[in-house]
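Aim 2, interim progress: modelling of the zinc ion-bound target.
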Amino acid sequence: MDGSPGRVAATDRGRVRAYPCAHLAGTDVGPVTRVFGYALHHIERDPETEPAVSANCLHEGCEWKSAPSTAVQPVDEACMRHTGLHPAHTRFARQFADVAVVARVGSP
Ligand SMILES: [Zn+2]
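Predicted structure of the complex, ligand included:
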């Protein structure tokens, strides 16, 4: 299995699971190809869409939120700037969402 950041691992039975927070380590989730019911399937981010990344501070009483982005790095940098200004604010909930497309390999 590939445990590198930003990648998705799949079992050989077709169940796909993401490594914890792996999708937050990179700006894209790598494409995966596996066999389902004797047919080869491939999943990847819809190239016509952009991922949505954001974060919010979890410090009690703080309502800070990052500006939304299509990449993880600007959001992470915004979190670090926030902690720089408020040293006790060290925990953030990060959100990542994208649209994925599944296609049978070999189908038109
Ligand atoms: Zn905060």
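Residues 1-25 have pLDDT under 50 and may be disordered. DSSP finds two helices and seven strands in the chain.
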